[in-house]
From TrEMBL:
GO terms for biological process: abscisic acid-activated signaling pathway. This is Nuclear transcription factor Y subunit B-4. It is found in: Nucleus. It holds the Pfam family CBFD_NFYB_HMF. GO terms for cellular component: CCAAT-binding factor complex. PANTHER family: CCAAT-BINDING TRANSCRIPTION FACTOR-RELATED, NUCLEAR TRANSCRIPTION FACTOR Y SUBUNIT B-4. Belongs to the NFYB/HAP3 subunit family.
Length: 161
């Protein structure tokens, strides 16, 4: 096991993740948090070590998401690998969409802000040109994990159907 505190996952984050999956009134002991902290840290080290070895053999310096999926599968965690691959695909779609929106925002602002008038004039000129106003902080919805247990999501009521 890992002994150095700085090499462990932050205990507050571990506790927060544990609380998310348990009923609201559940209590978690410090010992339980520490045990999960050590196990999760060891698991992550185990998987990333396997992925890192693959990268080393392929003369690459950077471990990416595909390497982690491969390592999970190679170590016998096929269910995790499949779920991680699906999440990675969705994450990449999200990033592409976010970049597309940011690029569109930048192009719209660049083509309408020629003479540096104040924001109200810019807003007015955008409307005059028939261009829909695009907020500069527009983004797509963030990804969300849902824990699935025997066909029911964690958001369903316990014991309910």
């Amino acid at each position: 096991m890992v002994d150095e505190p700085e090499s462990l996952l932050p205990i507050a984050n571990v506790g927060r993740i544990m609380k998310q999956i348990l009923p609201p009134n559940a209590k978690i002991s410090k010992e339980a948090k520490q045990t999960i902290q050590e196990c999760a840290t060891e698991f992550i080290s185990f998987v990333t070590g396997e992925a890192s070895e693959r990268c080393h053999k392929e003369n690459r310096k950077t471990v990416n998401g595909d390497d982690i999926c491969w390592a999970l599968s190679n170590l016998g965690f096929d269910n995790y690998a499949e779920a991680m691959a699906r999440y990675l695909h969705k994450y990449r779609e999200y990033e592409r969409e976010r970049n597309r929106i940011n690029n569109n925002n930048n192009q719209t602002l660049a083509t309408t802000s020629g003479d540096k008038k104040d924001d109200e004039d810019l807003h007015f000129r955008i409307e005059e040109q028939g261009v829909r106003q695009v907020e500069t902080h527009q983004s797509v919805a963030p990804l969300e994990f849902q824990f699935i247990d025997k066909g029911k999501s964690s958001t369903s009521e316990p014991g309910g159907g």
